User: What shape does this take?
Amino acid sequence: MIDKKQSRMRRARQTRAKIAELKAVRLAVYRSNDHIYAQVIDPTSKVLASASTLEPDVRKEIGNGSNVKAAALVGKRIAEKAKAQGVEQVAFDRAGFKYHGRVKALAEAAREAGLKF
Assistant: This one.
């Protein structure tokens, strides 16, 4: 019997393998019940930028970190931070999560803020 996390990790493995093969900078997203996290990671696994609903500025703006509005704000922030590091093009790594709801909101906000993927 495969549990929910194992099947998510199985789905994530193939995406990560392809991104590694392309040697692309990736935008990794993790979604928990209470928060959403995003990191821009270069091909050598070095974190270039990160944003999450745990950051004090985000907490001030949004009380609840587990909604689409909060995810969109994190998407905008990660795009700004990535561009400040000189990163324009990324590969979207949704870590096996469905491209729906909070994950989708983060991705669309990052695209609007100027990240290309």
